[in-house]
Amino acid sequence: MALPIMAKATAVWLVDNTTLTFKQIADFCGLHELEVNGIADGEVGIGIKGFDPIANNQLTDEEIKAGEKSPSHKLKLKFNAAAEGEEKRRGPRYTPLSKRQDRPAGILWLVKFHPELSDGQISKLVGTTKPTIQALRERTHWNIANIVPIDPVALGLCKQTELDSAVQKAAKKAAKDGTTMSDEDRAKLVSTEQSLHMSTEPKIPAAISGLETFSLTDDAPAEKKEPEIDADSLFNLPDADEDES
């Protein structure tokens, strides 16, 4: 169902200027009935100036009167030919001002630990632009010396489920394209849920396999010891009495 522009401001105007029920206003503006009730009580929408839907060609006076006469009447948004086919466009993710300074750190983390993600995926995850991502990939960003990679989930720039979904899509695309990945890169593609069930025992590198039982302690089985060497037997020096004679 199409909603009026400036829905909450429209609800404020309808509450102040009509006798429509809270449910009628809520259904028309896409709000919860309790939210409209809060507007009427002055607890919600404080400071919002009412937006006249009649003057702005969203409702007719006849439609409002019909709604006031019958509480079961559902208000219908006035047809606007100029708005036909216009839908909300999907743009970059909105990032609050308080977190925008953290975006480079989150992008650098994604570039470093998930190089398989495309610029488009990173852009959707943290709400940034491709030139910024490229600058961080090539380490030509103006502040690159002061940026420390930080998990964007920890920064609140995206959700863990969103990151896992993007990583899994990248893994499927890599498999479809026949791209070979190292063990380290493949480990990065494991989702958080899977990693929680993985063994915590460290794997021994192939280069040092066979040294598992090597120990520097005295626990090793005792071996046959070589006889101790006496210094006198090495030099076989004559006794002092023999020299005097």
From TrEMBL:
Pfam families the UniProt entry points to: TrcR
Domain of life where this protein originates: Bacteria
Region of interest (Disordered), residue spans: 215-245
InterPro entries noted in UniProt: TrcR
Protein name (database record): Cytoplasmic protein
Organism: Paramylibacter ulvae
Phylogenetic placement of the source organism: Bacteria, Pseudomonadati, Pseudomonadota, Alphaproteobacteria, Rhodobacterales
